[in-house]
Amino acid sequence: MDRYQLFIDGKFCDPEKGVYRYTYDPCTELPIAEVPVAETADATRAIAAARKAFDSRSWSGMSVKERAKRLYRLLDIIKEHEEEFMKLEAMDGGSTIKKTSMMDIPVGMEHMRLLIEAAERIPSYEPLPWIDFPSVSWNFVNREPIGVCVGIIPWNFPFMMLVWKVAPALAMGNTVIMKPASDTPLSALLFARCVAEADIPPGVFNLIIGSGSTVGRELCVSPLVDKIAFTGSTEVGREVMKMGAETIKKVTLELGGKSPSLVLEDADFSVAVDGCLFGTFFHQGQVCESGTRCFVPESIYDEFVGQMLAKIKKGIVLGDTMDFGTTMGPVVSKAQYNTVMSYIEIGKKEGAELLCGGKRPAHMDKGHFIEPTIFGNVKNDMRIAREEIFGPVLSVIKYKSLLDAINQCNDNIYGLAGAVWSSDIQKAIEVAKQIRTGTVWINDYHLLNALAPFGGYKQSGVGRELGTYGLKEYTQAKHIHVDLGTKRETKFWFDYIFND
Ligand code: NAP
Ligand code: MG
Prior knowledge:
Strand order of the largest sheet: 15-16-17-14-13-19-20
Distance between the termini: 81 Å
Structural class: alpha/beta
CATH architecture of the largest domain: 3-Layer(aba) Sandwich
Mean pLDDT: 97
Largest sheet: 7 strands, mixed
Bound molecules: NADP nicotinamide-adenine-dinucleotide phosphate, magnesium ion
Radius of gyration: 25 Å
C-alpha cells in the first residue's frame, strides 16, 4: 500500500507527530493508501515556507511567461501520470472510472491549460484614462500577486478543485498552501509528486493533509497568510470569513447551492428529461451546482415525471466504480450516507411523494450506495427543497404560472446555478436573466467553461473563479502615479499646508 507524505518547502516530510492513517474507497469500504495526519505545527511550517518563498521573489519576481512555461511543464508531468490520477480519483471519492477518465482528469488538465493561457493574456501594466490634472502625469495600474494564498477544498471534485485554486494562484505569482478535504487527499498528494518533478521553486506550492478544524483553522487565522480561497459548505464558509476578518484577509468563497432546473411548457422532452436527471444525479448529486429543484408546469407534469422515472430505470447503473459500465457510484462516506438518508426520511415526513429510490440498492451489500431518489409534488418551502442535501435526491415541484415559478426559483438562500429548458431560446434567455444565480444553463447542465466566471449569488459565495474574473481575484491592482512635472512651482497643492 502506498504511503504519502506532506509536501512543504519543496520537500516531502512526515507530519511532526509522525501520525498516519488510511484513506478508504467508499465503493469497497477498504483502505487504499496511508496518508499523513498534519497538526497545527505542520501548517505553521507550511505557512512559513510559503511566506519565505513569496518574499524572496523567487516566483513572484519571475515574468508571467517564465511562470507559465514552468506550469506547462508541470501539466506535462501530470499528463504522464494521467491514468494513475484517474484511478486514484475514482477510488478515493467514489467517482466512477467513467467520470474520472472522461471528465475530472482530462477536463481538470484542460482547465489548467486554459487558465495558464488566460493568465498570460492579463497585462501586468494597464494604462489608465487621461485625467486633466493640473500637472502632467503618467498613471497606470501594476497588477501584482496578493502573496501567500491558502486553498481549502471539498471532496466532490478533488483534482478539479485543486486545479481551480492552484493554477490561477501560481500563474499570477502567488505562493500556495493547499488543504484538501480529509476524505479525498490522494489526487492532491499525487499532484505534489508532480510538482516535485517540475521546476517550481521550494515553498511555492505546499500541501497539508489534516483536519479542517485544526489545520484548516490555523491556515485561516495566520497573520502571514494574505488570501483564503475556500470551496465547501456555506456553514464552514461563514466561519472562514469570520476567521479571515481578524487580519482582513482577501477571501473568496465558493459555497453550497440548491439550484433550480426550470422546465418551460415548450421544452423538448428528449433533452429536458435526460438533462434534469443529469443535472441532479451526476456524481450522485454531490455537486455544488446540482439542479436539485426541478420546476415542471402542471400541464406536462405527469408526462414529464413519467419519462424521468422510465429513464432512471433503464439508464442509470449503480455498481463497481472501476467498471466502465457503471454510471453511478456511492456517496463519499458513511457520514454523508447517513445525512442523505435522514433527508429522505424528512421528505417522507413532510408529505412529499416518494416516486423512486429512497433506499440502498438491494443487490449491493458493500459501499455507501443510495438509489437515485425522486420526490414528486414537493413544495418549495419543504426542507428537502430548501436545504442542500448533497446526494442523489431530486425534488420535483409543480407550477402554474411562469412568473410564479421564477419567484420560487429565487426563493432560496442559495444562488449558485440553474437551468432553463425551452425550445424558444429568446424566451429562455429572458427567463435566465431573472434567475438570481451565478450561472444559468439553457438546455444544458454542468458544462463548465474555464474562461467564464463561476461563483455564487446570495449565500452561495463571494467572488468568482475561472476566467479573467477568477484570475484577477489572485491579484491586487496597484495604482502608480508618475508626476512628470519635476519643478516645485508646478505643484501648487503642496501649498495646502504651507503659507510662506
Ligand atoms: P465542508 O465540510 O465545508 O469542507 C470543505 C473543506 O473545509 C474541507 O477541506 C474541510 O476539511 C475544511 N474545513 C472544515 N472545517 C473547517 C474549519 N473550521 N476551518 C477551515 N477549514 C475547514 O464541505 P464538504 O462537505 O467537504 O463539501 C461539500 C460542500 O462543498 C457542499 O456544500 C458543496 O455545495 C460545496 N461545494 C461548493 C462548490 C462551489 O464551487 N461553489 C464546489 C464544490 C463543493 P475536512 O475535510 O478536514 O473537514
Ligand atoms: Mg476516501
